[in-house]
Amino acid sequence: MSIKLYNHQKIALSYTRVNNGFALFMEQGTGKTLPSLFRLRDLIKSKEVNSILVVGPKSALGAWERDMELFNDKDMRLLRRHITLINYDKVWRGKTYDNVYDCIILDEAHFIKNRTSKRAKFLLKLASRAKYKYILTGTPISNGHLEDIWSQFCFLDCYVDR
Hints:
162 residues, alpha/beta, 5 strands, 16% strand
């Protein structure tokens, strides 16, 4: 089975290919995971990344599993071997603290909008060691609070004291 991307997904994929850090602000249900998985597959095949962390709400992680199954067997195994899926509640409480990931993706990145939360602080510090960083969300700003987007963009391009 060949995966066909919609035009907006092709555009999203093209932007991730020219930026080591990029935000995909796309409406819910428009398919942010597929372009992300294509990008991850390319990075793995080119040996630019070995370890990938995808953080998302528990409900979104099923979409990652489902979309990986759309790839041919070889690519699906490749993706599963290199990607660690974890939810926001477990990521900062688990044993990922000292890990270094080549690529980190935050699905539903608005989960780190509160920059003073333990979750956001942990993920910002973890991101400071990753070469590739992507955020995905359909709601980058809630209720017109512009400050909600600061930690999301900082995740992409800020140095955080270790």
